[in-house]
Design goal:
CATH class of the largest domain: Mainly Alpha
Radius of gyration: 38 Å
Distance between the termini: 71 Å
CATH topology of the largest domain: Globin-like
Helix content: 55-70%
Order of helices and strands: HHHHHHHHEEEEEHEHHHHHH
Number of strands: 6
Number of helices: 15
């Protein structure tokens, strides 16, 4: 585990670094003596490895809170990790070439494992520095005990020790960051899959608690789904600008539209602000209960979005239910329009258009011929004559409620299906 012994700038993330080529040099007799001193002390440390491991674990518990918690959670595994790392480190001092690859694999595995467990990287690097300091102090102490006159020779191998330290600090940091990126990608992908299943209506009941945790939304609550297309503001996550401030929402980005799963909380007046990004088309579903019903809400939001004009706007489904009925079943809408408006096709196109405009205006004026006449710039009797002509051509009676409902739906279908 720990190989570092002195503070250094943390290495930048990247793949596991390849061994750095070194320029061969001819060691002097002093270097040879220094290596002899180093190896002699390292063999003693290797023989006393369990005691050295106990010392490092104790130091970690005392000086690093994150490792204190790790020891409390699994003391045996932590001790074994420390033991393996120290053994590889000291073995590398004795046989740099033979033990190098195994030591690198050990450090990489520790970095990756601790990233998966959520141990902070700073704590991990601190542990490596503590371990490196402990090993170096052990080398100095052992040499001072058995051959004090040789302590000065350790200076000549210090650069080799620090190079080793730097290499393994880079390894553990790179392994940690690479694993952290992989974990983040997996989490993001899982969240996206859970949100997609909710919106598609294919989420399993057993997955709802996990989806609630991942999305940061309650499993049981009132929701609407907002579908947004066009005019997405640059720099905004999803289509956040289409919602009122403070609204709790999870955005799911799509190809043709973004969908927001919006929690409707008590006191919320509206999830959609009056001002929208230029060109944005927004469809808002009716409310549903619980995340399990989000799939139905998404379908309703898409229906509302289909009713939005191309130049932009917001359509709340609950305010356009007749149009939504037609849009959700275009085949039936077309059949209804043909049945109620088809007879007008026998007229000249201009005459048919006049009758249709008059009929639509009269309905928009709540059946008032007087108001419709003002809008159409004609006499009230002209409006009434056109309405009677429609009744004669179609056999429908505008005074009969069922016929009146069908005429309104037929005009809506004509507008939606033949814009």
């Amino acid at each position: 585990m720990p190989h570092a012994v002195r503070p250094r700038t943390l290495p930048r993330p990247g793949p596991a670094p390849a061994p750095r080529p070194r320029t061969p040099r001819v060691r002097s007799l002093i270097d040879a003596d220094a290596l002899r001193v180093l190896h002699r002390a390292a063999r003693v440390l290797l023989d006393d490895l369990p005691q050295l491991t106990d010392g490092l674990v104790a130091a970690l518990q005392e000086r690093e809170p994150a490792y204190r918690a790790a020891v409390e959670d699994d003391a045996t595994e932590t001790w074994q990790e420390v033991h393996r790392s120290l053994r590889h480190s000291i073995s590398s001092l004795l046989d740099p070439r033979g033990a190098r690859d195994a030591a690198r694999r050990c450090s990489w595995k520790i970095g990756a494992t601790r990233a998966e467990q959520g141990l902070p990287l700073d704590a991990l690097l601190h542990a490596f520095r503590l371990g490196g300091s402990l090993v170096w102090q052990g080398l100095v102490d052992e040499t001072s005990r058995t051959a004090p006159e040789d302590v000065r020779l350790l200076v000549h191998v210090a650069s080799d020790v620090w190079d080793f330290v730097d290499e393994h600090c880079t390894l553990v940091a790179d392994a940690y960051r690479q694993t952290e990126r992989q974990l983040a990608w997996r989490r993001e992908n899982r969240v996206r899959l859970l949100a997609a299943a909710l919106l598609d209506g294919t989420s399993r009941i057993a997955d709802l608690p996990e989806a609630a945790r991942a999305l940061g939304l309650p499993e049981h609550g009132r929701y609407v789904v907002v579908a947004v297309a066009g005019g997405r503001p640059a720099g905004c996550p999803g289509a956040q600008a289409a919602l009122a401030p403070g609204v709790r929402v999870h955005w799911h980005t799509g190809v043709d539209a973004d969908h927001g799963i919006v929690l409707v909380e008590d006191g919320t007046e509206s999830v959609v602000p009056k001002e929208r990004p230029a060109g944005a088309r927004v469809g808002v579903s009716s409310e549903v209960d619980g995340l399990s019903a989000v799939g139905e809400a998404r379908r309703l939001a898409d229906t509302a979005l289909s009713l939005c004009p191309e130049e932009g706007g917001t359509v709340h489904l609950t305010e356009h239910l007749p149009a939504a009925l037609v849009a959700s079943s275009p085949e039936l809408g077309a059949a209804l329009a043909e049945r109620l408006l088809g007879p007008l096709a026998r007229l000249e196109p201009a005459d048919a258009e006049v009758l249709l405009d008059t009929l639509a205006t009269w309905l928009a004026c709540d059946g008032s011929a007087q108001r419709a006449a003002r809008r159409l710039y004609c006499h009230r009797n002209t409006v009434l004559n056109r309405l009677r002509r429609y009744e004669q051509l179609t056999g429908r009676s505008l005074s009969r409620p069922t016929d009146l409902i069908e005429v309104g739906l037929a005009l809506t279908a004509r507008t939606l299906l033949h814009p």
